[in-house]
């Protein structure tokens, strides 16, 4: 085995081994779920109770988030395609949630696939709309139409070939948050490989395809499997920051079920999305929308490199590299004398002032502009300031003594 292969295997094994204790994950999951259920049963602080709200439905819709904090920023641009982590317990198992599938042209071929008898009936009943990118731009150009489409479906799936074109077609209605951002699915057929390389497509004039004929799509069983994985997967939306939150379950789940999803997300998140793997991980938390964050894991090394640690008594290095770095100097005036000066230097000061020529003996310089006379600065009264400070301290002591006497009584 070559040296590069050995290094790659070592890195892969290092990323797969998680230092997170599963018992700690299970303990935190039990505590968080119990707290959410207890908080839902208590009345609101305002004293008003919503009679239309159901306690069980409220808990079932409460999401649980796994929060990752890294030592350094994840240097990654804001992705339009969120990453997917397949979970042992899918997040969207509700059979009543509707799905909108956005495909590449033509849409008729994908509609025929979904309408065929080989397509599962349970999944077909949930896919209420299939539309390609051309019809999407034509029908949903107005903002009101985009809002209507947004409210009609709970889940949006999009072919990964056209998902980068969706921000211009759907606008901020879909992309200002990550709640219903389209999830990428791979519908294109796999290209053949020769010696590990994909075969290039033949060059030539484009031919018009019959919409009823099969397109460059995967076999139907692979499309069904791809859609099912995307529906129940945890989505990772990365941005250049040190904090990343991933939905891992709901408050109505059991603690064992939630802990399994958390452990799976931690392993996949560090192995696939975090640069420098576990050496860049600072801590993991789980939390609800309105709860405190419960710690699962925290590293012993808070810094990534030893060069970032500044010893005691030394100033940190400038953030500007090289010649742009500047050292700050003390703001001491020319006529101000230092308090730490030696007595000999202070005694020699009057002699130095005597040797300096008087202003009358100095030659006067001609100036074009006349300057205003210097305003005399009043001398500071240190005795009065010390007296005021002493009076304030005495008054404060009396107030503290009176408060302590009142508490003792």
How would you describe this protein?
Among the domains are: 20-42 and 58-91 and 235-299, 2-Layer Sandwich (Ribulose 1,5 Bisphosphate Carboxylase/Oxygenase), CATH 3.30.190; 92-190 and 212-232, Rossmann fold (3-Layer(aba) Sandwich). It has a 4-stranded antiparallel β-sheet. A 4-stranded parallel β-sheet has the order 4-3-5-6. The protein has a two-stranded antiparallel sheet with strand order 2-9. The model is unreliable at 1-15, 205-212 and 318-326 (pLDDT under 50). Helix content is 37%, strand content 14%. It has 13 helices and 12 strands. Residues 1-22, 312-409 are annotated as: Disordered. Residues 381-393 have a biased composition (Basic and acidic residues). This is Ribosomal protein L1p/L10e family-domain-containing protein.
Spell out the blueprint of helices and strands.
Elements: H1 3-16, H2 22-41, H3 55-60, E1 63-70, E2 83-85, E3 99-103, H4 107-115, H5 121-126, E4 127-132, H6 133-139, H7 143-152, E5 155-159, H8 166-170, H9 172-175, E6 183-185, E7 193-194, E8 197-198, H10 220-232, E9 234-236, E10 243-250, H11 255-272, E11 281-287, E12 294-298, H12 343-355, H13 382-408
Parallel strand pairs: 3-4, 3-5, 5-6
Antiparallel strand pairs: 1-10, 1-11, 2-9, 7-8, 11-12
Biased composition (Acidic residues): 341-354
InterPro entries: Ribosomal_uL1-like, Ribosomal_uL1/biogenesis, Ribosomal_uL1_3-a/b-sand
Protein name: Ribosomal protein L1p/L10e family-domain-containing protein
């Amino acid at each position: 085995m070559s040296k590069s292969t050995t290094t790659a295997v070592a890195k892969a094994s290092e990323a797969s081994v998680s230092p997170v204790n599963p018992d700690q994950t299970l303990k935190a999951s039990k505590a968080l779920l119990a707290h959410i259920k207890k908080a839902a049963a208590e009345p609101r602080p305002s004293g008003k109770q919503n009679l239309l709200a159901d306690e069980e439905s409220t808990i079932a819709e409460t999401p649980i988030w796994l929060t990752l904090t890294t030592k350094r920023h994840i240097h990654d641009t804001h992705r339009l395609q969120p990453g997917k982590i397949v979970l042992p317990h899918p997040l969207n198992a509700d059979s009543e949630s509707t799905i909108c599938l956005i495909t590449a042209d033509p849409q008729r071929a994908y509609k025929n696939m979904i309408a065929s008898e080989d397509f599962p009936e349970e999944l077909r009943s949930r896919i209420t709309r299939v539309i390609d990118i051309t019809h999407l731009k034509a029908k949903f150009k107005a903002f009101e139409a985009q809002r209507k489409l947004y409210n009609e479906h709970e889940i949006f799936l999009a072919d990964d070939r056209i998902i980068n074109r969706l921000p211009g077609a759907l606008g901020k209605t879909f992309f200002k948050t990550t709640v219903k951002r389209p999830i990428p699915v791979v519908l294109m057929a796999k290209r053949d490989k020769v010696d590990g390389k994909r075969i290039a497509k033949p060059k030539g004039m484009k031919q018009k395809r019959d919409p009823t004929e099969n397109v460059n799509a995967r076999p139907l069983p692979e499309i069904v499997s791809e859609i099912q994985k995307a529906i129940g997967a945890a989505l990772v939306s990365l941005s250049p920051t040190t904090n990343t939150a991933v939905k891992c379950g709901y408050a109505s789940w059991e603690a064992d079920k939630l802990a399994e999803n958390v452990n799976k997300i931690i392993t996949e998140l560090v192995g696939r999305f975090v640069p420098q793997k576990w050496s860049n991980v600072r801590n993991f938390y789980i939390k609800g929308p309105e709860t405190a964050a419960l710690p699962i894991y925290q590293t012993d090394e808070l810094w990534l490199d030893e060069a970032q640690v500044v010893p005691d008594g030394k100033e940190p290095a400038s953030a500007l590299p090289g010649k742009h770095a500047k050292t700050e100097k003390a703001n001491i005036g020319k006529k101000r004398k230092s308090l730490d000066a030696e007595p000999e230097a202070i005694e020699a000061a009057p002699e130095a002032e005597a040797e300096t020529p008087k202003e009358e003996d100095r030659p006067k310089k001609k100036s074009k502009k006349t300057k205003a006379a210097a305003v005399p600065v009043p001398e500071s009264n240190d005795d009065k300031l010390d007296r005021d400070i002493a009076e304030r301290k005495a008054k404060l002591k009396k107030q503290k003594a009176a408060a302590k006497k009142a508490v003792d009584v």
